[in-house]
Structure formats: C-alpha cells, structure tokens
Specification:
Elements: H1 6-13, E1 19-26, E2 32-36, E3 42-44, E4 47-51, E5 56-57, E6 70-76, H2 84-88, E7 96-103, E8 110-124, E9 127-133, H3 137-140, H4 177-184
Length: 219
C-alpha cells in the first residue's frame, strides 16, 4: 500500500484537484529528460518537466505475482526532445522511466506511481509509441544457459570450434552427443549435459538385466 504525503492526500480528498502526470526519463548515457502532460513547465527534484504536445500515457494495472505489467506512452516526435534519429540509434533502449502524479499548483505535493523501463518503441506518422515495462520484466529474461542433453552451441562457432572446411560440415548437426562424437570427433567441445536424467527418468523402474552399476545413462 502506498503512503501518501499529507498535503497530497488532502488535495486528492478535496474533490477539486489540479493534477498532472510527469515522466522522468533517464537514458543509459545518464541524459535525463522530463516531460509532462500539463500545459506549463513543472520543476522538482532538479528536473524540469517540459510540456509536450500530444503526450499521453495509458493506464497500467498492477498485478500480483511475476506477470509483467505494461503500459505505454504516446507522443509527437520533436527534434529538440525525442527525435526519430535518437530512437533509431537506440539511445532510449532500456531507459528508466519514473511516472509521477503531481499537483501542478504545488509540486511538493506529488506521488511516484511507478518505475518502469522502456521496451519496444514504434515510430509512425510523426509519433512515437513507447512500451513501459515493469520491474518483473527482468524476472522473465533468460539468463545464463539452459541445462539440456543437447548441445547449445552453433555448428562452426567459437564454442563449437568445428571448421567449416570439415568434410561433414554440410550435413549439419542435430546437437546430440553421438553426432558430435561420431560425425565430428568433437566431444571435448560438446556444450550439452547428456548425463543429466531427462523427464522420462521419473517413469523408469528397475528391470531384470538392466546395468544398474551407477554408470552413465548415456554412452
């Protein structure tokens, strides 16, 4: 539950509010930009929030769990603020966005609604449409390697090391240990985990004649 500043809470409960939305955008190169849907410049915490014609933010619902909450902000491309060239150069990829609700008559009365990062940006008809992703997005990102019996290298890359001049290179690789060993003789660089039991292991049961000697399940 959010704790509202006493002044902001009183203003909201008054029934006659003067509220505006402000967005503070911090790029990876530490450039900070401020925008507001109010018709006058607002300033607080050392950042000036410039009125940006046509700027509009969608509602973002907060959900429990690890689902990714998303919203978006739409605005007109301005060469002096957010230009098409800067977007194309990737300067806004992953930028941090703070969304504030502010009493424009008294900017000390404000509430930080959410902190998000910029995801996909679409440019069309002189406008930009930026997706705002919540912090849960980082939890959905694939990091590191996946444990799999198959090799996760690409045939011929630096991790595989098989030369494109190999006589069987054109046959390709199905990423199995047996193929790596018999076709390319490259087991030393196999990037899978063939000896980890798969999902079918839970269905196995001992049978007469099985070699239950603690050895590898995969030859």
């Amino acid at each position: 539950m959010r704790t509202l500043d006493v002044g902001f809470k009183a203003h909201v409960e008054s029934g006659a509010t003067t509220l505006a939305t402000c967005w503070k955008l911090t790029r990876a190169d530490e450039v900070v930009l401020g925008f507001t849907d109010h018709d006058q410049r607002l300033s607080f915490d050392g950042t000036d929030y410039e009125p940006m014609h046509g700027l509009d933010g969608s509602e973002t619902g907060s959900r429990l769990g690890a689902q990714v909450d998303t919203g978006e902000v739409v605005g007109v491309l301005h060469s002096e603020a957010i230009s098409e060239a800067d977007i194309a150069a990737g300067l806004y990829d992953g930028a941090m966005v703070e969304t504030w609700r502010v009493n424009w008559r008294e900017v000390s009365e404000r509430l930080l609604l959410r902190c998000t990062t910029i995801g996909e940006i679409v440019r069309e008809d002189g406008q930009f449409r930026a997706e705002l992703r919540s912090g849960q997005q980082a939890l959905n990102r694939v990091r590191g390697r996946i444990y799999s019996p198959l090799c996760d290298a690409v045939l011929g890359d630096a991790r595989c090391t098989v030369s494109s001049l190999h006589p069987d290179f054109a046959l390709g690789c199905d990423r199995r240990l047996a193929t790596c060993r018999e076709r390319f003789g490259n087991v030393a660089n196999f990037r899978g985990f063939p000896h980890i039991p798969g999902n079918d292991f839970v269905l196995k049961y001992p049978r007469g004649g099985d070699a239950l000697d603690g050895g590898a399940l995969v030859g």
